[in-house]
Design a protein that fits this description.
The structure is a homodimer. By secondary structure, chain A is of the alpha+beta class. Helices cover about 20% and strands about 30% of the residues of chain A. Chain A contains five helices and ten strands. In chain A, strands 1, 2, 3, 4, 5, 6, 7, 8, 9 and 10 form a ten-stranded mixed sheet that branches. In chain A, strand 8 and strand 9 (about 185-190) form a beta hairpin. In chain A, helix 3 crosses helix 4 (about 200-210). Chains A and B meet through strand 4 of A and strand 4 of B.
C-alpha cells in the first residue's frame, strides 16, 4: 500500500530558481526530488502547497510525496533527507498523512511575511532577505494602507500573468499585520489563497503610498475595478518575501 | 593637514578570509583599503579595533584611516565607500575624530555575541551564522557556567597562539549575559579586551559543561592555573561569533 508523507520545508531562496521544477535550473522541488530519488531508488513527484518565485524564502512550505511502503518512520525520512539536502533546504517536520491529504488542494490558509529594511544603510546580514528602502517611510501610513486589502476582493489588479490569465481571481485576506522593530518593518498577510506575485504587488502598492508616490484611492479603485487597464505597478523584490505557514 | 576618519563597519564574515589584510586573500580590510584607494587615488592603511577570524561577523567593528585633506564630509565618505564596497560590507557610520583617536589603542571595551541554534534541525537562514547543536542543551546551566568568566583573570588557558605567545594575558570581563529566544541561544561577553579565539574557547567550554561533557571546575581550574598543560579544548565555530560593539 502506498503511504503519503507530508513534509514541512524551510529554505533560503537566494541560491534557487524558485520552488517549481524546471529543466536545467536549480529549484527547491528538484533538490527535494533528487534527495528522495536517492533514498527511494526511483523518481517520485513532490507536490508543493504553492510555487514560490526565484529568491523567495520559506519557513513553512508544505509538500507531499507518495511512497510504495512505509517501512521507514517519518522521522527517519526527515533525518535521511536532511543529510542529503543542501543546508539551505531543511525538512523541519515530516509525518504520514491520509491519502486524502493534498499539499495544494487541502490548503485552507497561508501566511506570507514581507520584510523591509527602512534605514539609510542595509545591514549586511539582510542582503537578499529584505527590500532596502533608504528614503524615510511613514510606518503609521503602512499600518493604515495595509488594512485596505483585508476582506474578500477580486485581486486581478494585484496579480501578474503566468502565461495564461487565472480564471478565478477572488481571494479573501483575513488579516494584514504590520510591525516595526528598529529598522525592520514586516507586513504579514494571512489569506485563503494568493495569486501570482500578489503579495509583492500589494506590498509595492503599500510602500508607494507610504512614500507619498501613490494614494490609497488607487488601491481601493484597483480592488473595485480589477480589470481596468493597469497603470504602472510596483513589484516588491523577491528577497523580502517568506512563505511562513500553510494551514490545512 | 591630515584628517582622521573613524568608520563603524558591519560585515557578513562568510565570504571573507577574516579582517586582517593578507596576500592573495579576500579580507575585509583589503576590501576597505581597495575602496578607499579608488576614492583617494592612493593606498591608505586602515587600522581596525581588532582582527576577526575568517567567517566571524561584525555589527560594529571600528576602524580609522588618515586622509590628506577633509574636503569631503564624513557622510560623503560613507556614501561613496558603500557604493564601492560589496553589499556584505557596510559603513554604518563615519565621522572625523581627533588625531589622538586610535581604533585599536583607544578601545576601552568590546562586546562580542555568540549565537547557538539549539534544535534538532538548523533553520536555513542560520547557516554560517550559528553553531548548530542538535543534542539537548541545558540553558540554565549555560547561564550559570557563563558567570564563571566574569572578573579579572589570566585568560592564557582560553587563548590560542597566533604564532608567538602573548605576553600579557590578563583581561577583565565585565559581564556575560545568556539569553534564549525559541531555538536561539545567545551569549554576550563585554570586556576590556579579548585574546585570540578567547570568546570561541569560552563558549566551547560553556557548551561542553551544558552538554555534561565537562565540569565547571575545569573552567575555574583553567582560570586559576592558566599555564598548566592544556587539556583538549573545544573551539566554537567562527560563524556563530559577532563583534557587536567597540567602546571608546
Amino acid at each position: 500500500m502506498s503511504a503519503r508523507l507530508k513534509l514541512t520545508v524551510a529554505y533560503d531562496g537566494t541560491p534557487f530558481a524558485g520552488w517549481q521544477s524546471q529543466k536545467h535550473a536549480n529549484t527547491v522541488q528538484d533538490q527535494l526530488e533528487k534527495a528522495i530519488a536517492r533514498m527511494a531508488g526511483k523518481h517520485l513527484r513532490v507536490h508543493g502547497a504553492g510555487r514560490t518565485d526565484a529568491g523567495v524564502h520559506a519557513l513553512g512550505q508544505c509538500a507531499h510525496v507518495d511512497f510504495l511502503d512505509q517501512k521507514r518512520s517519518a522521522q527517519d525520512w526527515q533525518r535521511a533527507l536532511n543529510a542529503l539536502l543542501p543546508a539551505t533546504i531543511r525538512i523541519m517536520r515530516a509525518r504520514y498523512v491520509s491519502p486524502d491529504f493534498h499539499a495544494r488542494f487541502s490548503a485552507k490558509e497561508k501566511i506570507y511575511r514581507y520584510r523591509i529594511w527602512a534605514a539609510p544603510v542595509l545591514r549586511p546580514f539582510e542582503v537578499s532577505r529584505c527590500w532596502h528602502i533608504a528614503a524615510p517611510l511613514d510606518f503609521e501610513k503602512i499600518v493604515r494602507t495595509s488594512k485596505l486589502f483585508v476582506g474578500k476582493h477580486d485581486f486581478a489588479g494585484f496579480a501578474a500573468n503566468r502565461g495564461k490569465p487565472e480564471t478565478d481571481t477572488v481571494r479573501s485576506i483575513q488579516e494584514v499585520r504590520a510591525k516595526k522593530s528598529g529598522s525592520l518593518i514586516t507586513i504579514q498577510f494571512r489569506g485563503d489563497g494568493f495569486l501570482y506575485k500578489m503579495v509583492r504587488l500589494m506590498t509595492g502598492a503599500i510602500v508607494d503610498c507610504a512614500l507619498g508616490k501613490a494614494f490609497d484611492e488607487q488601491i481601493t479603485d484597483r480592488l473595485s475595478f480589477p480589470h481596468s487597464a493597469a497603470a504602472a505597478r510596483t513589484v516588491a523584490p523577491a528577497g523580502g518575501l517568506i512563505l511562513v505557514r500553510v494551514f490545512y
